[in-house]
Amino acid sequence: MIDESIDIVWWETSLTDHQAFTLVELKSYARVSVFVVRDQNAERKSQGWTSSSNASISPVILPAWNISFIWRIIYSNRKKVHVFGGPFEHPKLMFAAFVGIIIGAKVYFLSEPYSTATHGLLKDTNKHLNVFKAKLRPILYSLYGKIFLKYIKGILTVSPLAAKQFIIMGAKRSQIFPFGYFVPAISRPFVPSNSGKTLKAVFVGTLNGTKGIDILSGTINRLNLDGYKIGLDVFGPGDPGILGDNPEGVKYRGVIPFGETQRVISSYDLFILPSRYDGWGVVVNEAILAGLPVLCSDHVGASAIVEHFGCGIVYELSDPAVLKNILISLILDRDQLRIMRKLLPEAQGAINPKIAANYIVEMIKGNNNFHQVNSCPWYDIPDFL
């Protein structure tokens, strides 16, 4: 039932299923209107990103720079709650948030951590520029913090790293609401775990240095040359050349149609995400929902889910030998995977857009029984909170 007392204006640069499914569920709890800067990010759209839920959300696309239009939206909705997803991604969102603060609206942010990687998030071009951006981001975000954080109600921090960065930027602990990205489970046929001699692993993601696929491909190649039986199927947009020169056991399988990841990967034994940086990594959600234990680096935001529920293994990216040793252990002892599979249902039940939507509602209500530090359904709260 919709709570008529909760009226939310939601702002995004563009809308994908990372946010859209949660917004669909949120509309069953509260009145929600959505504004976006653009329909889709052209680069992400070329890689297959979309939003299958836009029709039910009906987002309004902001016109070309029109300060008075944005001002009117904020002013006419000044008594409502305003949530800005990725508030520092576009000048229009920053301006709208600033206006909201000036007129005294209740403003919340939803934000991933800023990237600490020196690789491009989508492409590996302009390497010198990427290094410069990596050094510049902490400075810019510190400045943003001084401008905004004293005046907003709270921040939905996507991953523990985001929470840490916002605390460093000047946010109060009481402003931090640990969050993530959420997609629903899809119906799929039951796939029994592989009993063959070869461990079947899968990677899904953009083929670039940020995702660490070069590290993973090289590791799989060495394991096979050493006599271990492991296969890796790689799915995703980008240049397959990053995999190396015909690595043993590694096969590039193309791009999975958007929304089909859970079905495609459900027949594998293990999902691997070796990212050098991943603000969240919603494909980890997809793997868990598809019934796969997850092996990922500690630089993946969603690794917090894996650690909390024990449905996989998180390794330190800083030690290059760790990934190889873990894979050898899993190849030689499949019981580890069976144990992790038994822990998947609890995680599957928690990473649900409906739970995320209810969490947002409780945050906005500010119920006495709700305290963000003790109420994160998805992962352990870092000690610094």
Written overview of the protein:
The chain is of the alpha/beta class and 385 residues long. Helices cover 38% and strands 17% of the residues. It has 15 helices and 13 strands. The strands form two sheets. Strands 3-2-1-4-5-6-7 form a seven-stranded parallel sheet, sandwiched between helices. Strand 4 (81-85), helix 5 (91-102) and strand 5 form a beta-alpha-beta unit. Helix 1 (17-26) crosses helix 15 (353-365) and helix 4 crosses helix 5 (91-102). The longest helix is centred in the middle third of the chain and has 22 residues, at 127-148. The model has no long low-confidence stretch (mean pLDDT 89).
With strands numbered from the N-terminus, the spatial order across the biggest sheet is 3-2-1-4-5-6-7
Overall, the morphology is: globular
Share in helix: 25-40%
Largest sheet, strands/sense/barrel: 7 strands, parallel
The helix-and-strand class reads: alpha/beta
Order of helices and strands: EHEHHEHEHEHEHEEHEEHEHEHEHHHH
- As a whole number of angstroms, the C-alpha radius of gyration is 21 Å
Helices, by number, come to 15
Calculate the mean pLDDT score and round it. Answer: 89
Low-confidence stretches: none
Q: Report the portion of residues in β strands.
A: 15-25%
Give the distance, in angstroms, between the N- and C-terminal Cα atoms. Answer: 33 Å
State the total count of DSSP E strands. 13
Task: Briefly say what this structure is.
The chain is an alpha/beta fold. It is built from 15 helices and 13 strands.
